[in-house]
User: Fold these one by one.
Assistant:
Number 1:
Amino acid sequence: MKQLFITCVCTMLFLLMACTEDHSFTLDEKQQIIVVHNLLSLEIESDSSQIDGEHLFFITKVNPYETKELDTIKLYGQSTGLDIKKFGGGYKKIERVNLLPNRKYTITHSGMGGRVRIQEFFYTDSKGMLRVDPSRKRKVGYRDK
């Protein structure tokens, strides 16, 4: 019985450690890059009421078994090792993310586990440069109901 208890405690300890990995992401406004820790899937969606063919981008790793801890998404250049798809009447594979000027964007990093779903809010200025929206707070965890 003691051995079963020790086995259960060790298993729970390892499971808890696995759930605390860093899955956050940050925007470098100067370089216009997004750095993602442990990329699973990242969505960039326009909040604009003027929805057109470029309102949703879906980004994953080309090789899902890649163990690289940090991935870099270049907003105005070609990113390597990433699969970028654009939604507009179906998903279409593209080479780079093209954000439109004067729009609000929501970026969501999601995957398995409660702490993995992270959502942040941004906007693009008149030149199409992505900026952090200071009026809205970051959301962490599963969807709000």
Number 2:
Amino acid sequence: MIKEITEQENDLIEAIRNYKRSFHNKSKELKRHAKILFDEMIDD
């Protein structure tokens, strides 16, 4: 099954992936960015 995702959803996925990849040195800025993207998506 193929699902289409919006650019906004893709940005959120990439932000989460970048945060998860930084497992030894978790960046507060990466986490904050992902949270902001998520909040923007659910507020629309």
Number 3:
Amino acid sequence: MMIDYCRIKPEVNRMVKRIPDPLIFPFSVFMRNNGYTISAVKDGIIYRKGKAVAKILGAVETSEQSYAMNEHCSMRFKTFTELYLKIGYLFIEELNRQGLK
């Protein structure tokens, strides 16, 4: 079952500044699905779409509980979180499945 999560408009009031480690992979698939290119760099992950640049800061090879994000990435993560809260774990499962293809 394919979820058209780009059309859902839920609301989350609080901006999150850090992304939990287990959500980086599905979040990256979410960003790719929304037209961002993904690059791994020495100090984190960069997502680019036109002039917009989102960044997760930290050496992802050394696992931490969570990683800092720049403002644009926090805004995108807010949308991701809203969809997760609205749809439930099926949202994460679908993104993981897409990413493993």
Number 4:
Amino acid sequence: MSEQVKKPIKITETILRDAHQSLIATRMPTEFMLPILDKMDKVGYHSVECWGGATFDASLRFLKEDPWDRLRKLRDGFKNTKLQMLFRGQNILGYRPYADDVVEYFVQKSISNGIDIIRIFDCLNDLRNLQAAVDATNKFKVQEGRGHAQVALSYTLGDAYTLEYWTDMAKKIEEMGADSICIKDMAGLLVPYKATEMISAMKSATKLPIQLHTHYTSGVAGMTYLKAVEAGVDVIDTAMSPFAMGTSQPATEVMVETFKGTPYDTGFDQNLLAEIADYFRPYRDECLANGLLNPKVMGVDIKTLLYQVPGGMLSNMVSQLKEQNAEDKYYDVLKEIPQVRKDLGEPPLVTPSSQIVGTQAVFNVLMGERYKMATKETKAVLRGEYGQTVKPMSQEVIDKVIPGEERITCRYADLLDNELDKLESEMKEWKQQDEDVLSYALFPQVATDFFKYRQAQQEKVDMTHADTKNGAYPV
């Protein structure tokens, strides 16, 4: 690249979402975030990822916070910076596919409460499961002049996932009306020279901006970013150093320094970044001290590359084997995982497909017979409820697990009736804002518990002293 052509690399900061989701199970409270927003707003980030993913569930379940309230407070704090969220296609932020009316309403409320960029992905890369969310974002953009639909492709390895596959997907994403593309490498499987190939190929196939998201799990992420930037990627995801590396993203300050004095120079102020890092460091130390941050997730796990299994999936599998006193079967299960993945059509391993494949592999090994017992999720994948896989699923396994059952070939959401009105009538006694219906839709039980807690706080009821038998509550 000639010295004259400047192309500063844009950066999306993940410390307020993916970084703490990856390292401390999404437990950073809103009140801790607010004092540093003013400084973060001055950096010049392309965007700050601060919502979606597991933040919604964790806020309601563990922090007893309203996630919508968090979003509004963050919006107030960031005057000049775009806010970004992660969105699981038809599953929104929950674990089942929702009807289109819920998807559309959720997109509308996310943008009107302050989100600018919605990153939408599907665990099978089935674009049909992303179309409703993209359409809803575009519709809102026309009405309100705000909203950006970014389609994320879950990166994975396997003989179906050729350069041609990725470039075809890039063209289709452009055709479906998305504003940009993200390569979402949740397991840290994209190695540096492959990144050069992939970004170059996709750049020649589409005019859309391309963003790269990876995790440091396998230890190559910083080098992968370097090669991707040289190959023309437009945006990279990084995390402020106190919550970077390990199962999180490369450190923001390190990437800023890497490109300093080159055509990709971000122009960010390292002194300002240092002040932001200083703010988060004591909290990181506190998380280490109280066990919320386990030093295990901060190192490099090269097994990720050997077995192509994301870190969270490995730890899940180890605990399942422990419960069954079958830890000696670890390597048998690791060998079984690629086999199960192949049987199920070679899906990318990302939530929830990673859990489904991993759990089924454990069952197959422990039972001593493959698919003697299949989980209800495995059956749903084989039925086609999660969508279409890149390769066909094993007919033999289909015949064994769901013999004679009809399989779904259309988009599963096409079989669902609108459900907003029904959800609204189920929870109307708790409703204090329109958004409460959506919280309930995603996590009915967890949201209801939160609504009860909220009401008790508002009425200053001390539940520990309440005379529940006689219905007398001291205020």
